Each structure stands twice: as C-alpha cells, then as structure tokens.
Predict the structure.
Amino acid sequence: MTLNNYYKEYKYIPIELLIFFSELKALENGKHTGHTVQEFCDYYKGKYNKVEAPQPQIVAMICDKLVKDNSLTVLNRGGFMDMENSYYCLLNDRSSLSDQLILDLRNVQLSSAIYGFEFIYDHYKRYVIPILNIDNKGDQSIGSAFIYRGGIVTAKHCIEGANKIAVKGISEKDLKSAIFYISPKKGMDLIYIKLPSDITDSIYFKNEVNILEEVMALGYPKIPGFHNFLTAEKATVSARYTATRGAVVSIAEDIWIREDLILITAKIQAGNSGGPIINDKGMVVGVGVNIPTGKGKYDDLGYGTVIPISFADNIIDSLDSEFDTSSIEFLNFID
C-alpha cells in the first residue's frame, strides 16, 4: 500500500495524528517528550480494530506533509523506518474534539493537503451532480451542479431556456417546491437552488483563488446518458496570458460581466458548466461557466471561465432575486 491510497484503509489518520501528538509524555530529564510514530501506529490499530497497524514509514511521510502544512511540529527524528520520529501539535480549542462533525470536516481538509487531487476527486465526486435540460424542441443537454451550503449551485444557463429540468438525486416534488435565486446583476451566470429542506451533507469549505494555485474542475460530459462519468481536469493559476497547458491563468478584470473572474487553461466544456472548481486544499474557489465573450481569443488559448465562489455566497446570503421557473416542468432524473 502506498501513501496515495492510504486514506482508503486508514481514513482518520490525519485528524488522529493531530489529537495524538497534542499530548506530551511525562517529564524525562526535566523536559517533556513527544510520542513517537510507532506509538501512534499501535494506538490507531487498537482504536479502530485494524488487522494491521499503519506502517510507521508512511505515517512519518504523512506527518512530514502536515509539518509542511504547519499543522505539526517536529520534535525528534530517529529510529528504523522513522519509528522513533516524534511530533507535536498545539490544539488551541480542545472543546472541538467532542464534536464529530468538526473533526470530520477538519479531517477532509488535512487529507486534501496530504493526498492531493486523487483524494479530492474521490471525496467531492458525491457532491457534483448532473442536470438534464430539455428545450421546447425536445433536445436534451447535460450540465453540472454541486451541493453547496445546503442547496445546489450551478450556472444559470444550465436552467435558462429549459422546457423541462431534472436534477440527479433531487425529486420532482422538491424541485417544484424549491426557490431558484440569482444575482441582481443580469450577466452573472449563477443560480442557487434552495430546496424545501437543506441538504446536510454538502460542501462548506471555500476560499479565494490565488495566482499559481493548482485547481481541479469537476463536471459531466454534455452527452445525455453519460452522466455516470464525472470528468476532472487539473489546472494552475498563473499570469493572465500564460498559455501553459494545465494552468489557471489569472483573475481577469473588465471582461464579460465586468467582474473579477478567473481564467483557467483547462477548458470548461459545455457539460462541465456549473461544476465546482476546487483547489489543492480541498476548498471550492469557483464555479465553472462558459467561455467569456468580448475581446480576446480566450477559446483559442484553451481558457475556461470561472466565477469566484464569493459571488455564489452573495446570492445565498441575500436570497433577494428570484429566477422565474413558472414555465419549467420539473421531472425525476432517470438513470
């Protein structure tokens, strides 16, 4: 077993490391000493009834990633296969240790930093869902959406012009009772679907995007019938006109809707519109939308357009502009 797939067998190692190394051992020679990696492996095996304990060398690799993430501090290095390495974590708020939801969310953050986009894809794919749009001619198209802050975020154009709409995992009844909120700014290609009851298992982590930051775009192919195939494309935030393949290009100003947008060299294909853009810390930074219009051959350079997640937050926080769905028939999504 390698580091990259350790999260599948030992899911809670990241948060358990922080908790375990937050306690120092008794005084030795007038000083407190830290627990060792080997002691942690034995502790984890016992707590989770594992047949095999985690491998000390891999646990030490995970610890070093957490050191780089400023979550752990090295106290000592030594021993065969790093078994005697010891670390320390300062937990300012120990009361949170009794809240399982907080621990689970923190574990996701730590796992994203440790395992990277492979973990991020596996974890976040359950939050990304396809939208079926049927126009008045009966033509079908697929768009993407994601579960965020208890509701559903997508690109407005995935809903506009539809005669019929179906969203995977959301019943026809709930869609009929939902309220669709948009930005008061006409050009903003975003919509938030507030359902009768909040979805408790949803994405809550968010952040602003930074230049040179690595991100992943998630979404579905535009072909109906392929909605079980979730696509993922990596990119990196870079300078505005850098055409390096696979990099986010810049926070673009004064284009399209005259707002701060994000350009990424990973194209946002038709079916990917409305899907989340997630950074390498496992936080949503934006919503993938369509190619920008106006001056500049962004499509020729392979750029896709992303609206920062803060604009979706503005819609959710205000809930003051509704999208008219009276002409749309809602359906159950049929796999």
About this structure: Residues 100-115 form the longest helix (16 residues).
